[in-house]
Amino acid sequence: MAHMAQNQAARKKGKKVTIENFYGGSTQGKEENEEEIQKNSEHSSQNGNYQQALEDLKLELIQKMEIWKEKWEKEISCLTDKNAQLEKEVEASNRRANKAEKRNQSLTTRIKHLEESKMIKQQESIKQTQKINELEENIKYLTEKVTDLENRGRRENLRIIGLPEKTEINNKLDIILQEIIKENCPHVLEQGGKIEIERIHRTPSILNPQKTTPRNVIAKFKSFQVKEKILQEAKKKSFRYKGAPIRITHDLAANTLRDCKAWNTIFRKARELGLQPRINYPAKLTIYFQGKVWAFNKIEDFQAFAKKRPELCGKFDFQAQKARET
Predict the structure, then answer these.
(1) What domain range includes position 64?
(2) What is the distance between the alpha carbons of residues 318 and 270, in angstroms, rounded to a whole number?
(3) CATH number at residue 294
(4) Are residues 167 and 207 in the same domain?
(5) pLDDT of residue 126
(6) How does DSSP assign 107-144, residue by residue?
(7) Known InterPro entries for this protein (predicted)?
(8) Residues 245, 180: contact at Cβ < 8 Å?
(9) Same domain, yes or no, for 95 and 111?
(10) Which of 318, 166, 179 is nearest to 239 (CA)?
(11) Which of 252, 227, 247, 243 minimizes the C-alpha distance to 235?
């Protein structure tokens, strides 16, 4: 082995390898061979150390690679778990979003239905208001019609106010009426000195049983013309019965009487001003002003008329009139 190493070293140095050199035939050759062997031995020792260092480095690298591999596997596993968790959270968020969207759609649908229902109710309310207005107009028309028919049914009647309520009078009201006519307007009497009366009676006291004033007397005549003659005489002068004052008026329906009484304050003031006021059927005020006869169906019409005339403006207390109506 030593000879072979020497020969290889000789070849590397370019020396010619001889048998003597190979087998150490001279002293000089032997010394050179020993030096070469020592150098080769040292070189072999260095090569062995280098190989060992490489093996150690390789082992260290393998160990580090194993550590890095474990770390990367852990990081990958952690990232995978986080990704799975994120996917779950995204899925849960999507489910919540879908639920919110469905709820929003449901609320939108409900709001739409409510708006449609509100619109339908508004339309129904408008229709009901129109129907109510129509019914009120019909009621007003029918009330006026009934009132007119009631007044027409009373056109032959007269109302006697202030006649003392005594038993001897109540038992013979027809005779008392004949006496009143003879005392106040005898020229109205027909042939025979009497007037045909269909019926005569006191008004009922059901509405106010505590009333102490005498009840009115209602007389129905067979002739409308005779009744009008008596009424005209009653407008000209005050009637009396045995010296006691009484009043003769139309026998009108309750609604008409109420409307007539609404003119009372204005009527009295107009009479004070010399306007010659009259209450005509059914409840219409007429006055004589500036050479003309003016007629008013409503108090508001007369109020507007008076405000435009300086002679009448401020003369009538319409606030007191309204308070009395209230």
Answers:
(1) 60-154
(2) 13
(3) 3.30.250.20
(4) yes
(5) 94
(6) HHHHHHHHHHHHHHHHHHHHHHHHHHHHHHHHHHHHHH
(7) L1_C (IPR042566), L1_dsRBD (IPR035300), L1_RRM_dom (IPR043636), Transposase_22 (IPR004244)
(8) no
(9) yes
(10) 179
(11) 247
